[in-house]
Amino acid sequence: MRPTVDFLLYDWLDVAALTERPRYGEHSLETFAQVLDTCERIARDKYAPFNRLVDMEEPRQEGDRVVLPKATHDAWKAYAESGMLAAAQDDALGGMQLPYTVEAAANAFFARASVSIGAGLLTVGNANLLMVHGTPAQQRVFAHREFCGQWSGTMCLSEPQAGSSLSDIATRALPDGEGFETDPLGPRYRLFGNKMWISAGEHDLTENIVHLVLAKIPGADGKHVPGARGISLFIVPKKLVDAEGRLTGERNDVNLAGLNHKCGWRGTPNTLLNFGDGHHPVQGAAGAIGWRVGAAGDGLRCMFHMMNEARIGVGMAASMLGMAGYEAALAYARQRPQGRPLGPAGKDPGQPPVAIIAHADVKRMLLAQKAYAEGALALELYCARLVDEHRTGEAAAARDAGLLLEVLTPIAKSWPSEWCLEANSLAIQVHGGYGYTRDFPVEQYWRDNRLNMIHEGTHGIQALDLLGRKVVMEDGAGLALLAARMHATIARAEPVPCLHMHAGALNAALQQLVEATHRAWEGGDPAATLANATPYLQAFGHVVLAWIWLDVAQSALAHLADNTGKSDLRDGKLQACRYFYAYELPKIQAWLQVAARRDPTCREMQDAWF
Question: Which of 104, 126, 248, 323 has the fewest Cβ atoms within 10 Å of its own Cβ atom?
Answer without folding.
Answer: 248
